[in-house]
Write a structure and sequence with these properties.
The protein is 46% helix and 13% strand. By secondary structure, it is of the alpha/beta class. The chain has a single domain, classed as TIM Barrel, CATH 3.20.20.30. Strands 1, 2, 5 and 6 form a 4-stranded parallel β-sheet that branches. It has a two-stranded antiparallel sheet with strand order 3-4. α4 crosses α5. The radius of gyration is 18 Å and the shape is globular.
């Protein structure tokens, strides 16, 4: 008896196209290796910040770096934890410092204007991703989380919803990655 489980993938830092392609290939192989089961949905979660102007990326990147320094503490056990809260470790102690390069973070996570987010989501779709989960819990200020949601709802999702309406019947009845509301 099958439980009908779906897939959630949370790539951390690698280049979008490269890591999403690898995960997409693994997903397609798993589906092909088990034709006796219906195709599960494939959801991708990334840290996300949507902003109006291309120059507004620095705040999101700064918060992502700070969050990552606490994550590194937990994963590498290189700092202390006080009252359940890991301290952010010094940047110099982080093993994979290239992952924290501001340009790499901006380019590889979902930190973009609405039109750029649409383009990135189309790359994800091309690899078989059905749903997208906005990762907002990386100490991004609340007002930027709200703004991200508003821009995603108002400017990103309508692109996919309109396209889905125009192509109704072309797919198996599944909404596109962003129109699904995830």
């Amino acid at each position: 008896m099958s439980i009908g489980a779906n897939i959630l993938s949370i790539p951390l830092y690698a280049a979008v196209a490269a890591e999403v392609a690898v995960l997409g290939e693994k997903f397609r192989k798993a589906v092909a290796d088990h034709p006796e089961h219906p195709r599960p949905r494939f959801m991708m979660q990334r840290r996300t910040c949507v902003y109006d102007r291309p120059d507004d990326w620095e705040t999101a990147v700064r918060h992502s770096v700070d969050y990552g320094r606490t994550f590194e503490n937990l994963m590498q056990n290189i700092g202390t934890v006080k009252d359940g809260f890991p301290e952010p470790v010094p940047y110099e102690t982080v093993a994979n410092r290239a992952n924290y390069d501001p340009t790499n973070i901006r380019d590889n996570l979902m930190f973009r204007t609405p039109n750029e987010v649409i383009w990135k989501l189309q790359v994800y779709e091309g690899q078989g991703v059905d749903q997208y989960c906005l990762g907002l819990s990386f100490n991004l200020p609340f007002e930027l989380q709200v703004k991200t949601l508003r821009l995603f709802i108002d400017e990103v999702m309508p692109h996919f919803a309109a396209r889905d309406v125009a192509h109704e019947g072309d797919s198996q009845g599944e909404p596109s990655v962003a129109a699904a509301g995830y």
